[in-house]
Amino acid sequence: MKQRLFGTDGLRGQGNIFPMTPEIALRLGLAAGQYFRNGNKHHRVVIGKDTRLSGYVFETALTSGLCANGMDVFLVGPMPTPAISFLTRNMRADLGVVISASHNPFMDNGIKFFDRNGFKLPDEVEDEISELVLGKDTQWDYPPAEDVGRAHRINDAPGRYIVYLKNSFSQHLTLDGVKIVLDCAHGAAYGVAPYVLEELGAEVVTVGVSPDGLNINQKCGSLYPEVIARMVVEEGADIGIALDGDADRLIVCDEKGRILDGDQIMALCALELMEKDGLPGNMLVATVMSNMALELFMKEHGGRLLRTDVGDRYVVEAMRREGAVLGGEQSGHLIFMDHATTGDGLLAALQLLRIMRERERPLSELAGLLEPFPQVLKNVHVKRKIPFDQAPEVQEAVRKVEAALEGKGRVLLRYSGTEAVCRVMVEAADPALVERYTGDIVAACEKYLK
Question: Could you give the residue numbers annotated as active site?
């Protein structure tokens, strides 16, 4: 089996440990340059990053490889992942590159690509690039000295993205009188997100806007929504918005401090679109991780939920194939295809704020649509990702739990695409049973997969 560099969301790992080493990043730049240049001169590449200290290392290595293979590189510095998707389209670039490990701690980093239309690369393209990077006999098709690429710093990128986001908000509405607690996770959105909301008229109380290279996602952001929940109540705010390190996911809380995940946000947005006849086929796209309550909610309102594998790229692929306009993940990746080609936490927040302003009702009244089934998700660290069909003892544990649930719950067993982890999830109406059944499967995984 060929080795893959890329997981469900690009290349990711701990800095200076394979595969996240300067050598691999350099070869990745060479490989991407060779693949996308395709014999032509000076195609454009936009490179952005989050606020991790190691971003400097990988930015420099990628730039060297891309320029060496004849690509002109445009460096925009710390910017959200969805901003790079937008800027790739906006600047008519041939490739977008993001250096980020999203919600992971600072010691991790990652690299992911967008094509010229702002979509993440399909598996087959990533595999071809992987073969070039990992191939011991790879011959680089270097251009002559006069045709190597140049690198440029682009200073107006934040302004372009801010204008784009403001234009996604209804022109006849403002956020005047709205008080917002905003947590940027000391990440990529710290320099743009507050300005978008303030320029639309909101009063913004910020947290997580002082990155030092080491504090990204550190007890803040979308993984720690209790921070905004507490501050919203203390500040008397109307809503709390929590982004992750690269700002492609969103978790919110209402004015009472009640936390809403991606499923609950999707339910609200899907219903609003269905009421306006703006959801083609009344279809919402989500992953296998979304709660059963979301599936039942869509059925009750005459819609349907299409599930995909985990990863917002797979959600986007299904949306493009089916002509859907709304999709996302329970974790907070939300895709509004009428506005964007990838998950954008701040854009999603603006759509939620738009609904609040149009309905002139607080979020607590709008969002009480979904009562999620009790769900337990536990991680089992593994040395090797053994195919589950080669672990009969684990399969037997899952079979017993599914039989006990009698169709009134779900079991999901999957490997993480970015970590050496097996994820075990059980859903059912009885929280005590959910906990017990999850423990049974985890015990089998710990015994036979470690």
Answer: 102
pLDDT in tens, 351-387: 999 999 999 999 999 998 888 899 999 999 998 899 9
Taking Cα atoms as reference points, which of 32, 114, 70, 100 lies closest to residue 24? 32
Q: Indicate whether 273 and 223 sit together in one domain.
A: no
Say whether 338 counts as a known binding-site residue: no
Give the model's pLDDT for residue 1.
46
Q: Answer for the pair 50, 56: CB distance below 8 angstroms, yes or no.
A: no
- Sheet with 250-253, edge to edge strand ranges: 203-207, 179-183, 239-243, 250-253, 259-260
**Nearest partner of 249 among 153, 162, 348, 175, judged by Cα:** 348
Of 259, 294, 311, which one is at a domain's C-terminal end? 259
Q: Which of 248, 266, 260, 385 is nearest to 311 (CA)?
A: 248
- Is 115 annotated to bind a ligand? Reply is no
What is the SS3 assignment for 405? helix
> By the 8 A CB rule, do 93 and 74 touch?
yes
Residue 383: in which H helix or E strand, if any?
Answer: none
pTM: 0.91
The per-residue DSSP string of 331-380 comes to TS-EEETTT-SS--HHHHHHHHHHHHHHHT--HHHHSTT--PPPEEEEEE
What is the pLDDT at residue 42? 66
Count the domains in the chain.
Answer: 4
Flag whether 108 is marked binding: no
As given in the structure block, the two tokens for residue 59 are 């930015």
Tell me: cis bond preceding 225? Omega within 30 of 0 counts.
Answer: no
Q: Can you read off the two tokens belonging to residue 155? A: 């200073």
CA distance 54 to 189: 17
Residue 2 confidence (pLDDT): 59
Report the alpha-carbon distance of residue 194 to residue 340 in Å, rounded: 20
- Determine the pLDDT at residue 337: 97
Return all residues near 74 (Cβ < 8 A) that are at least 6 apart.
Answer: 44, 45, 46, 47, 91, 93, 151, 152, 154
Q: Tokens standing for 355?
A: 């609904």
Whether 430 has a binding-site annotation, put simply, is no
DSSP state of 172: T
Residue 17 DSSP symbol: B
Residue numbers in the chain where pLDDT is lower than 50: 1
Q: How many CB atoms lie within 10 A of CB 449?
A: 19
Q: Which of 154, 178, 193 is the C-terminal boundary of a domain?
A: 154
Closest CA to 151 of 256, 76, 245: 76
Distance CA 352, CA 337 (A): 15
CATH number of the domain residue 31 falls in: 3.40.120.10
- Alpha helix stretches (DSSP H) within 69-215: 81-90, 123-134, 157-167, 193-199
Tokens of 124: 């087959």
Query: Which phi and psi angles does 328 have, rounded to 5°?
Result: 170, -170
